[in-house]
Amino acid sequence: MSRARATAALSAGLVLAALVGGCAEPPAPPRPSSGAATMRTDTRPDATQLLATTVEKINRSGGVHNTVRGSLGIVGELNGEGVVQYQGGAAEFSLSGHTEPEGQRPQPVELSFVDGVGYLKTPLMRPEPGKPWLRIASDGTDFAAKLFSPALAQVLAAIDPRATFAGIESATKIETSAPEVIDGRQTTRYDLRILTARAAELSTDPQQRERYRSAAESGQREIGYQLWLDESGLPVRFAATQDVAQAGQMSLTSSYRDWGTHIDIQPPPADRVGVFRDLPMPQAQPR
């Protein structure tokens, strides 16, 4: 593989990887302690009941309109609008918008996840002439699957708060909570902290378990998220921040409106979906 082509693939991969709404905050600073105080009980409220109730309400509500905005580190800014369907175990979604890489013009991007398969459309990654969509299967062995399926799983977790906390509700604490008005709507903001060592013990998902185990072993005791709930208990916002060595700081916020919307998400036409015959080269144009 040439250096130019490897660099191109990595740059394009960052675009999708940076969509990760499941990005986590930098580790919380250590609490001052000494001697026996290090063993004191964590008195912060448990988030189990809060998250269980929120998940139940999401499941009953079904569809919602979603906006994702924020910084993608060195990749630039992301602005996207879409819809999400929460019926069933995994969410399905469709998102369109643009990314603005540093020093380049804004680049359009479309991403969807239907029936367990992801699809990506961006001028940075053109699989075949006349076939602008790229299929990303989690169990695929092709170039696209190997490069993008881990990132796609995190995108899904970012858009679906259920996936972030599923199975580890009792490993999550409420750091603070406070009323906050968003676009004229009364909400309550919850600063949530996942205890990584405990989450690694509880998680039944191998990838999730390994992620928390690695975080705990590296000294990252907690991973933070912010969740805003309206007066009915449904999400209004979901936010996270992470420092990524290869990409800089990523900070994304998902906003939700019109819960209960009927949504029918369809995959792209089969004849518009291509595969890579060779490593892709980016098509982004400079300013």
TrEMBL record:
Keywords: Signal. Residues 1-17 form the signal peptide. InterPro entries: LolA/LolB/LppX. SUPFAM superfamilies: Prokaryotic lipoproteins and lipoprotein localization factors. The keyword Signal applies. The keyword Signal applies. Residues 264-287 are annotated as: Disordered. It comes from the Bacteria. This is Lipoprotein.
